[in-house]
């Protein structure tokens, strides 16, 4: 699974664990992506989720439109998101080999 798809799924899982609604600035997975991978990367991922009908953004709030069950805790979601973000950041920053 691509890093973008994994991060999108983790963002959806975090929203589900927050009862389907949250302010964007309180979503830890989004903040990690914006800080390490850039706000453009994080925004593009959000736009993709909006266009596919999974979430809706109203002002500074995000609402999950398709509810589902998750078996992970918030800490597990954050830990996995951190690992994906770090590996993606390192692959972006790594200089090309000769």
Written description of the protein model:
- With 98 residues, this protein is mainly α.
- The protein is built from four helices and three strands.
- It has a single domain (3-93), classed as Arc Repressor Mutant, subunit A (Orthogonal Bundle).
- It has a three-stranded antiparallel sheet.
- Helix 1 (3-17) runs antiparallel to helix 4.
- It is globular.
Short description:
The protein is mainly alpha-helical. The protein has four helices and three strands.
Strand order of the largest sheet: 1-3-2
Query: In sequence order, what are the helices and strands, one letter per element?
Result: HEHHEEH
- Report the mean per-residue pLDDT as an integer: 93
CATH top-level class: Mainly Alpha
Category by helix and strand content:
mainly alpha
Helix percent band: 55-70%
Number of strands: 3
Shape: globular
- For the record, the count of structural domains works out to 1
- CATH names the topology as Arc Repressor Mutant, subunit A
Output the number of helix runs: 4
What's the architecture, going by CATH? Answer: Orthogonal Bundle
The share of residues in extended strands comes to 5-15%
Low-pLDDT runs of 5+ residues are none
- Main beta sheet, described? 3 strands, antiparallel
Radius of gyration of CA atoms, rounded to a whole number: 14 Å
Report the span from N to C terminus. Answer: 27 Å
